[in-house]
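Figure 3 (text version): structure tokens given as input.
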């Protein structure tokens, strides 16, 4: 499958470092047959000419997470996409990218990227649902995104089931915490706050913002 990305100047192997509003002519195909071109344009080929694939994947993922944490949606998306071309089985990168596209599709300042994010999110969730069938992460975020876009809330019972079936996967707890006004799943929600304070990606920022909103509301209600 082919899709197109706009590569920001800060990720090019040549040329000045600039902002993320890049010209349309910097869009290019990153389908499987164009992986070498894509990594060269990112500068990965120049930086690690003899690096094994696993190292290149790790570097791409690390760059993506850093750009994501700094709010550089286009740069992060480009590197997440490259990492997935190198390792399509990486569920964490897939979810990070999906949530980034979801948030960017709602708020990105560059309209061209906002439109791309919305289109690519649908494609990504469709392919990931097959590739990661049975994975709690994909099940949760796919349903949560769909419910939120429909102006609804993901059923807390579904989140409780996920927490019961996959006790090590805590993200459904923020929905339970939110829907119970902080009365349920507080230990898990606090653990998410700690974990995501160390990795403030679009995914982490969204989760912590929901938890903080519930906590602030509780504090206001507890005042005399």
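Below: residues designed for each position.
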């Amino acid at each position: 499958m082919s899709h197109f990305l706009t590569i920001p100047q800060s990720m090019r192997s040549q040329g000045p470092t600039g902002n993320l509003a890049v010209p349309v002519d910097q869009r290019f195909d990153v389908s499987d047959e164009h992986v070498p071109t894509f990594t060269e344009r990112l500068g990965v080929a120049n930086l690690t000419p003899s690096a094994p694939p696993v190292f290149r994947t790790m570097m791409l993922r690390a760059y993506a997470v850093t750009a994501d944490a700094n709010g550089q949606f286009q740069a992060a998306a480009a590197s997440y996409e490259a990492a997935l071309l190198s390792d399509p089985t990486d569920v964490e990168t897939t979810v990070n990218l999906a949530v980034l596209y979801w948030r960017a599709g709602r708020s990105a300042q560059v309209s061209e990227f906002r439109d791309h994010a919305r289109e690519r999110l649908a494609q990504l969730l469709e392919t990931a649902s097959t590739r990661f069938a049975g994975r709690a992460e994909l099940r949760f975020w796919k349903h949560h995104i769909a419910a939120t876009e429909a102006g609804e809330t993901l059923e807390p019972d579904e989140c409780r089931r996920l927490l019961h079936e996959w006790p090590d996967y805590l993200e459904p707890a923020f929905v339970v915490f939110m829907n119970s006004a902080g009365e349920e799943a507080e230990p898990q929600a606090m653990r998410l706050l700690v974990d995501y304070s160390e990795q403030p990606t679009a995914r982490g920022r969204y989760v912590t913002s929901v938890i903080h909103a519930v906590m602030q509301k509780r504090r206001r209600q507890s005042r005399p």
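Residues 4-133 form one domain.
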